[in-house]
Amino acid sequence: MPNLNKLLAAAAAILALGVAAPQAQDLPDLAGREIVAVTENAYVPLNFADPATGEGIGFEYDLFNEIAKRLNAGVRWELTSWDVMIQSVRDGQFDVGMDGITINDERKGQVDFSDSYLTSQQLMLVRADESRFTDAESFAADASFLVGAQAGTTNFYVAVYNVLDGDEANPRIKLFDTFGASVQALLSGDIDTVLMDQTSANGYIGANPGAFKVVGTPLGTEDFGFIFPPGSDLVAPVNAALAQIKADGTMDALQQKWFYEYNSAQ
Question: Taking a C-beta distance cutoff of 8 angstroms, is the pair 193, 126 a contact?
Answer without folding.
Answer: yes
